[in-house]
Structure prediction request, 581 residues.
Amino acid sequence: MSGALVAYRWEVRKLLSQKRTYIGIGAAAVLPVVFVTVMALQKGGPYDAPLGHNLRRTGLALALVVLTFVSRFGAQLAVALVAGDIVANEHAGKTLKMILTRSLRRGQILAGKTLASFTYVLVTLLALGLAGLVAGSIAWGFNPLTNLSGVQVSAFRTLWLSAAALGVFALPLIAVAAFALLLSTWTRNSAAAIVGTLVYAVGQEAIGGLVHQDWARHYLLSDQFDGWHGLFMSPVAWTPIIRAIWVSALFVAVPLALAWAIFRRRDVADD
Amino acid sequence: MPDERPVEVRGLVKRYGAVTAVDGVDLTVDAGDVYGFLGPNGAGKTTTLRILLGLIRSDEGEARLFGRDPQHELPTALDGVAGFVETPYFYPYLSGRKNLELLAAFDRDGGRKRIDQLLRLVDLERRADDRVNGYSQGMRQRLGVAASLLRDPRLLLLDEPTNGLDPGGMRDMRHLVVRLSSEGITVLLSSHLLAEVEEICNRVAIIRTGRIVYEGTLADLRASAGSNRYRLRTTDDARARQILLTHPEARDVILGGDELTFSCAEAEVGGISRALVEGGLGITALVPEELSLESLFFELTEDEPQEAAA
Prediction:
């Protein structure tokens, strides 16, 4: 097994042993249930949200509507809690000097941490998707969905499109994780990395709100959280999806390159 | 590279801003040594060990472990080398055994099969499956030794290994170091405890404010002090004092307690003892006064402002 995979495997085991890991995953799993419960207790709902008009008609819309709600802040917070801590807690716990004196290279250790952070993003979204599917289907049934172009889509096709939508949504969220990892490496302070990541995410939202030129807004990370909408148009709008892929990739590559540059040369001494 | 020295350091310098923590350090540790790296807190011991383990980069100089440079040849430079700086730290939410399994995995599963054996060796077998956050300082220290031995090292770098241990734990740790040495492991051990170094080390380096002020054996260190002071007991110390005071080669004669002390050149001791006997005295003891290691240590490490960082 390559060194990075060894580090990855143990990073995942370490994450599984820490309470903070379950905060984001637990919230992602609970949120759709809360959403359904609140809607059951009152009339109306967020029908103006993308695909919101499907709520109460099909449970398949639930996870996608919740995704819109968490895309502005909640998802970033959940990711920052883990990715912002993953290097910094080794400094705080003084365990970094222990693992750096073994047989893995620094780059392999950082790669393991990066992959574990990205895995966490995917697991969190999976928890949200599965909980949304189960809670939504129980409450409103497994019915066809009317897409953003007003075309009815079969339940099974919607299921596949929802999985793809979670995948597209994961890309900018992974970019947020990459930034959190950079701050975690750079500041060596979990709190600073988590808060810094939230400022970064909210800052992109704010800039997106201020900038009226579409060409500029489209290249902000915040805009890529809506890229999955293209899957629910007829025909499928590939432009926002492809843009979400390459813009997110850019927002992943730059922080990771910086994190690697810092991590591989950093003196590991007690501050 | 079996012929290379375990540790060879030349002109090592590490600066933190305006502070020079390590200032031209030279060290040579030969195979089989239990080498004491002695100095007060903040003298530069830990910084030197961090450089040797590749945790920090030196600004100048060269450090080699079995001929390999830990600054540029990691992780291969640490092949056959293990140790820890300051207190060994572990993941508190994992058990002692899981921590060792993690470290074995990070060593490409090199020591995985020896985990049970090592847990027995450091007397942690019964607590191996408890989380480390419930371990005492001594248990963590012992787990640190087990973690080091997982690598089946030829060279152990231990930074203050008895730190935080109770007297029994300190004794056990010293016994363990002696035992490891007898099994052929070279040990470089930093400490500020003189008794510890005196008990288990065959060679020492003493560091003060980032500079080595002595390197060699403890016997040579004592000899180098060259006090030329002697302790004398006779059948009549008061009369002996009178004789010494009139002898041209005896100086600084002091009568205190049940003995006399005086200074003179080694070549004159015979003449002085003859004068005492000719004065009708019986000499019951005449021995050179040996400076304690402690006084030598303080002589070498004090009276200079503490500038260096740990």
User: Anything to note?
Assistant: Chain A has twelve helices and two strands.
